Amino acid sequence: MAGERKGLFITGTDTGVGKTLVTAGLARCLRDRGFAPGVIKPVETGCALRNGKRIPRDGSFLKHMAGATEPIEEIVPYRLAAPLAPQVAAEREGVRIQTRRLQSAFRAISSRHPFILVEGAGGILVPVTRRTTMVDLMKQFELPVLLVSRIGLGTLNHTLLTLYYLAQHRIPVAGVVLNDPDGCRDLSARSNPATLEQWTSVPLLGNIPCHKGTRMTRGCADEIARRVDRYVDVDGIIRRMSRFGPLVPNEAFHRKRLEELKDLKGKIDIQVDLKRSRRRSG
Ligand SMILES: Nc1ncnc2c1ncn2[C@@H]1O[C@H](COP(=O)(O)OP(=O)(O)O)[C@@H](O)[C@H]1O
Ligand SMILES: [Mg+2]
Q1: Helices (H), 204-274
Q2: What is the C-alpha to C-alpha distance for residues 84 and 94, in angstroms, rounded to an integer?
Q3: Annotation marks residue 53 as catalytic
Q4: How far is the CA of 56 from the centre of ligand 2 (A)?
Q5: From the centroid of its chain, how far is CA 110?
Q6: I need a labelling partner for 238 at 20 to 30 A (CA). Which of 26, 60, 93, 254 fits?
Q7: For ligand 1, atom 15, which residue shows the shortest CA distance?
Q8: Which among 150, 138, 271 is positioned nearest to 210, based on CA atoms?
Q9: How confident is residue 234, by pLDDT bands cut at 50, 70 and 90?
Q10: Which ligand is nearest to the CA of 179?
Q11: What is the rounded radius of gyration, in angstroms, for the C-alpha atoms of the chain?
């Protein structure tokens, strides 16, 4: 598993935790490094109607940040109205979500790009159809997962529950990114990173602070990319993806980046360590 394709399935402990911010920021960072990532948001709900068309905001922002040329209908195969879980939103509209269609969209996009970023909807057990949850999509796409968690009180429970369930299903986890959408500066936020590192060997790949006024819009695009580059170990993510096959980065970018990194102390170094989660699930 996860040996065929290069990419990440970005999921979250909840909705509104920062999946789109992280996916979009990563897409731009990869693009800036000379990769042309593909992006896909298999199902998006809460899509407003504009000129007779359902507009998926997450998918449109991902397309913009990745510089993807695929039509939005391919990047977001199911665009649903109600701001509900995919299964429920689809049933309300009489739409039958076909996982086969999701897979063929995924295969088509990933065949054109060296790297693909998938943004899930909600958390890992969100129902996609009557028989399928996000976990099943992760298995079908055969990608390692990047988990985005909201920093603060409650995140230890949400993060560990999610990681344990993924381990039970033997889904490889590339790492966890903490994000602070709400400006949480209490003791829990300060202690979360160290406590998570005590409780799991899944690496912490980033800790993104709150930046008030952030929206998933083109006006915030540069700022989001800058922050993901600064607070997420993008190069570590690329390194671990590279073990699935050669990715040749843009050399000029890397020379500049190496210069910058000389000044950055305490940047988290990443190791692939799935042993512990495998032991737990075995
Ligand atoms: N680091 C942050 N600082 C400030 N606001 C943020 C941050 N991350 C997310 N947000 C806010 O939270 C909202 C939800 O983030 P988003 O990435 O869309 O979450 P998800 O994709 O998990 O639903 C965003 O529209 C933005 O307004
Ligand atoms: Mg989103």
Answers
A1: 221-231, 234-242, 251-262
A2: 14
A3: no
A4: 10
A5: 15
A6: 60
A7: 18
A8: 150
A9: very high
A10: 1
A11: 18
pLDDT at 135 over 80: yes
**Least confident range of 101-110, 187-196, 242-251:** 242-251
For ligand 1, atom 11, name the residue with the nearest CA: 181
Question: What would the mean pLDDT of 227-248 be, rounded to a whole number?
Answer: 76
| Helices within 113-186 (DSSP H only) | 134-141, 155-168
Question: Pseudo-torsion of CA 128, 100, 62, 87, nearest 10°?
Answer: -20
Whole-angstrom distance, CA of residue 149 vs CA of residue 156:
9
Rounded CA separation 144/150 (Å): 20
The overall pTM is greater than 0.85: yes
Active site residue: 19, 41, 262, 267, which one?
41
Ligand 2 (ion): residues with CB under 5 Å are 19-20, 58
Query: In 113-215, where does DSSP find H-type helix?
Result: 134-141, 155-168, 187-199
Q: How far apart are CA 154 and CA 198, in angstroms?
A: 16
Which is nearest to 194 in space by CA: 240, 147, 151? 151
**Tokens linked to 224:** 């989001």
**Amino acid 136: pLDDT:** 96
